[in-house]
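Hey, resending since the last one bounced:
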Amino acid sequence: MGWKPVNLMEVDEQGNIILNLASTAADDDWIRAGRLARKAEAGDEEAAKELQRLRETPMVQFFEDEQDGDGQEADDAEKQGTTTHAGYPANRDPASGIIQSSLEKIRMETIFSHIVQKRFSHLNEDIATEALAFMLQSSDNARKGIMQILQGVIPGLPMLRFETQKSEKNIRPDMWGYDSAEPRVFIENKFWAGLTDSQPVAYLRQLSKYTQPTLLFFVVPDAREHIMWRELNRRLKDAGIMAIERDGPGTVSYTCSTDMGPVLSLISWGRLLSGLALYLADEPLMKNNLTQLQALCEAAEIDAFVPISPQDLSNQVTPAFVLQLNTIVQASVEMAVAKGIFTTNGYKAQASWERIGRYVKFLFENGPGVWIGVHFGLWKKYGETPLWMVFAQTDWGCALQSRPLIEAWAARKGIFVTFKNEELAIALNLACGEDKDQETRKMVNLYKDIADALCPGWEDQGRKRV
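The structure tokens again:
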């Protein structure tokens, strides 16, 4: 009886690409992993350690070896049809004779992206990462293609080999680019998931320990390039890391050097895959694999309808989070009214297909009226925060009059604002790891800052009622 670890993507003897959607213990026992993740996010260190152990514990496939097929272990497996490894069930595939861990397999065909989106959309990033790694590991031309891009950012970077499923301390980059035994590049593939607490700062710190130059390379959807780059730079600034933007190759969207040593760069999926396509023109099979990955990236667009899964229907975290956000809005507005910043007299709560909140009016003389609340449309489009303040272009909302004052204030404070469709919207950023009272007070302070930007000295005007 022999065994081997399960990889997320494999190739069988006929050359078919196989996706194993439970390649780690965390994938196999996803309910437990999800519960541990919630506890870890809440600061439970033991839960974080156990989740890390599950993620690093590979599933295995058992198979009968012809030389020892008569052994006791094989006999037992034959009688029972099952075996176990580290407490995880495994079942015999009657067609192949392989005893498989409890995982699902689907063959990559021309409808690959459709199948992934229909049943496994929550694994988009993992599947795209393994698909990209498979091409880089299977084709010298694909590897030359990505190296051409990476060497455009860091000239002289040696030819690298790429691996996945690696972790170091508290970081787990999607892909590692090795020069011999030493990492030189971390590649982090994103669709619409947010940055983790470790990104990018902990990743850069780890890279700074290796031979320089090193590179942290983000791959994101085209529509997310600017938003992600702004968030990456905000986190560098918050961590006290000096970053100097520099020109990069035409295929790369953004690049900056850091005072820690490593370079940070960002590219879109479209640019990356187009760059690889130039090197795969003479490899029909690999070119077809690239087409499959391109289709997956297009299907993962945020506006595409993703079929609803049983997990979506039973997930109580999402509604609880939205209700929690609503309590922050309600409590902060009530406190702002008590402090004389807003009035709600004559104004009601308001909800539509894309937002839940209420109307208020700044209490100083000729103060504009605004809407405050959870804006799903802006949250989805910009990813800054679920909470927004919106000025309409009406005599009541005064968006055009308020715009120059708000934009100047926001530039000083590093706060995101946008003006679209005659509406001025301010991102009301929440603090992470704070309790409700602290979140509420910080939000009220933000309301006061906005009032100060619109009408300096408004508190000395007697707060005329309007």
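The first helix runs from residue 25 to 28.

Sorry for the duplicate.
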